[in-house]
Write a structure and sequence with these properties.
9-stranded mixed sheet, globular, 11 strands, 203 residues, alpha+beta, two-stranded antiparallel ribbon
Length: 203
């Protein structure tokens, strides 16, 4: 009942806008590609073949959180120009990061978010529980930001609640700065979103 009220009747959310300026981003980890002495391969997938379907299905089976996408979603997002980076250890996918462009459906708001040209929106960042605290998040986000920069993006941004320690820690990895607040309001059939920018500084 509460979910239905939030989706169809009334919903108000306020989140922080976190931004990383890619024009000044300099990679710190591109020469490091090992975790605990084992090689790690991080790459951007531009299509999903049968080999990666199998690897992703296995990774989905190891999730300890709710999955917000499936194999079909992967292919659809990639066709729309989204960036999908995966981290592999051996023959397993142990982490991934999605960076959206254009427009993306945002679960928290039950609504789309428009993404300005030249920017990429961060969401669905995941590290397998066996590899948390190993340095893998640093390697993954470093390669994501470097790829986006080299592909002509000038800004990497996302939204988070200030009480979400995991997301705030992720944005520190991305050298993000609090740039403002994003408000979303739904009242019956009407939806409104407002960005309010201010400069506070590094997280």
């Amino acid at each position: 009942m509460r979910w239905a009220i939030k989706k169809y009747i009334f919903n108000f959310r306020k989140m922080l806008i976190i931004e990383t300026d890619l024009r000044t981003y300099a990679s710190a980890f591109l020469d490091r590609r090992t975790i605990r002495g084992n090689p790690v391969v991080i790459s951007r997938l531009e299509s999903i073949d049968s080999n990666y379907e199998t690897k992703l299905e296995k990774a989905f089976g190891n999730l300890d959180i709710k999955s917000y996408f499936d194999i079909g979603d992967c292919s659809n997002r990639i066709r729309r120009g989204f960036y999908f980076h995966v981290a592999e250890a051996g023959d397993e996918i142990v982490g991934w990061a999605w960076s959206a462009t254009g427009r993306v459906y945002f679960e928290e708001f039950f609504s789309d978010i428009a993404i300005p040209d030249g920017t990429a929106f961060s969401y669905n960042f995941y590290i397998d529980k066996r590899f948390r605290g190993t340095g893998l998040p640093f390697l993954l986000i470093d390669l994501v930001l470097s790829d986006l920069r080299d592909d002509g993006k000038h800004l990497f941004w996302g939204l988070c609640y200030p009480h979400n320690k995991n997301v705030m820690a992720f944005n520190k990895l991305a050298r993000g700065k609090i740039a403002g607040q994003y408000y979303f309001i739904r009242l019956l059939m009407w939806s409104f979103s407002v960005k309010r920018y201010f400069k506070i500084g590094a997280l």
